[in-house]
Amino acid sequence: MSQSESAAPSAKSIWGSLFLAIAVVVALAPFCLVIMNAFKSHTEIVANPLALPDSFSMVNFVTAWTTGRFSTGLFNSVAICGFTIGITVGLASLAAFPLARRKGKIWRLISIYFLCAVTVPIQLFIFPLYFIFAALGIVGNLFATSLILSAINLPLAIFLLRTYVLAIPQELDDAAFMDGAGPWKTFWYVILPLLRPGLITVAILVGFNAWNEFMITSTFQQGQANFTMTLGYLSMNSTIVTDRGIMMAGALIIIFPIIIFFLAMQRFFIGGMTAGAIKG
Amino acid sequence: MSDAEAPSVSVAVSAASAKRTQKHARSDGRSGDFKYALFVLPALLLSASIVIVPAVLTFGASFTDWDGVSEPYWVGLENFQDLLSDGTFWQAIYNNITWTIIFLTVPMALALIAASVLLNRKKSAAVYQVVLLTPYILSPIANASIWKFIIFDPISGVVSFINRHGIPISNPLGEPSTALYAVASVDMWHFWGYLAVVFLAAMRQTPADQLEAAFLEGANGWQVFRYVTLPNILPTIALMIAMVTIFSFLTFDYVYLLTNGGPAHSTEMLSTLAYSAAFRTFEVGKAAAIALFMSLFGLVASFIYVWMSRETLR
Lengths: 280, 314
Fold this sequence. Notes:
By secondary structure, chain A is an all-alpha fold.
């Protein structure tokens, strides 16, 4: 029995290992190509994109940083992320409290509204919204764009935080109520401190979403001064369309910090990401 | 110890405390609800002003001829009639359906395989998860540019290098017959790791006694998957099918960045068609009509999604 037991898994794990090995190569090979070619000149890349670089010159990175206007872009990206995280986490934690604690028709309806909002296509509102923003003169305004990104991220943030509020024992609310605390005091002194892990998870997820968002950001952050870091990179393509070495250096600049941040925060990220997706 | 344990614990805890909440729910009636209304009001206000009001305007604009700036001109159903007789519109619907079929099969199957393989690798699974998620956490601009410039590019790409060294292949983005599959491949490369991680987290919730019983009965790996793991993760698979269907009808980023609907509309999607109608030719009425079509497609999947999530509301 022990023999058949050990034989079956080992045969299976050969195919399993092969599958995983291919999956890892496919996932990472494009990034290896970026690293290899970021240090090469355009002619070297055209000659052989698979060759290793001869030297580790930083000149491509300097050119990429200035042509991509990454200093401005970094500021704008961080501002949009910061605003979006602040607005989303603030409004979502407030809304999650009664949605977790109150029962009744109104609260069910509000929950259903936010549930529907998870799947609302951006195209359903982006076109009139853009022309409203244009008429108001707030196209390119970092805070105005962050409001849109917050509205998009709100539903998911509310449902995640609602799960975390539900995990806080109702007895704590009741005890605060007995001590004479109203809803606001209960929220501020009982719920919010215990909500911290949830707030961090939601902040990280929303931060990634805001940093990576493309359609809203590219539509509303028009004009070079308003570009985020990724939009600045995209605009390089039209400025120096010919030099792929500089493009690869620029790509490395915009992906490297995100990968490091992801590695540091992956526990929160994976936990929050799967929490909303598992049914059972 | 594992990353997926956190949600499983939180789900279990929330289910237990939800029951408790029901028992303890204070019935201080309407005045109580009013006190709590202020908590949810800011979120509702933001959502209403960014989503609902413009969505209603989209509905109205679909019956007008509007350039976004001057006074809209009422045209009734003309935008919809024009779309139905527009070959590009039907091409886009066809492409969206093809896209949906691709995404409901290839990444789903790959993710199920990856998750089942990782389930037996207790220690290394965390590392594999991070690697498979790396493309998922990067921006579409970065991912699309990498594939476009260093892999598909007809001059500087790996494809052109292989082409010059014996194997005759051309830039798959440049051929109308292959462009859609090339764009879908890049998007799947970016997306499938997410599915794998979600399925793995779901599989880890399979009750251990069921697995033990199956092994004691002498079930092989496939039988365990078919009769124990799969039934347990079926609700998660169903939810992912709903999500993938919704987002397949809205897909925009990778198509816009890699081909912008070309060559010869071979990768045109409803989303790219609507976007260029609104912002390139300033036919906002037409764009609104397409947006309503997209929402209609997504609506069916949304109903399923909301229906499936209904127990979280209890």
